[in-house]
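Comment on both lines for my students:
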Amino acid sequence: MTKSRKIIQHKRKVNDFEWLKSNIDFELVYKNGQTIVSKDKKLKAKYFFLDNEKNCKVKAGISISSDKGNSVWRNRLKRIFREAIRKEKEALSAIARQKNACLLIILSPHSINEVSLNKIYFKDIATSFFEILIRLKEPALFGQK
């Protein structure tokens, strides 16, 4: 078996992550989900566990309202959020497997906007996102919702 076939087969097995795309999923999270806000109040995560799912997947989404800043700033923030999610994809998958459910999560800025934080970098967001992951992991470890 060639190296490229092994890589393709490996990618098929690790396909337990998707992006939230449908409005139905977004509405489900916003209506029934719970909210976690980081201690420094920079980020907010709304999450919901879908029980009775055959495979434990993670579906992540990003939501940034237009009153937070202009389109250039919002798109930069989206790229930073995507990178943070990409780096912690395995941790999110582990949380879904522990809970034995599908995890739907939406990240959004809480107190940051273009006026308060004009130049935004990955390091500004990484610690807040990591803290949200830890707080998301705690209910999964102790069997609470």
About this structure: DSSP finds five helices and five strands in the chain. The helical segments are 3-13, 23-32, 71-87, 89-99, 122-142. The beta strands are 17-19, 34-37, 43-50, 58-62, 102-109. The radius of gyration is 16 Å.
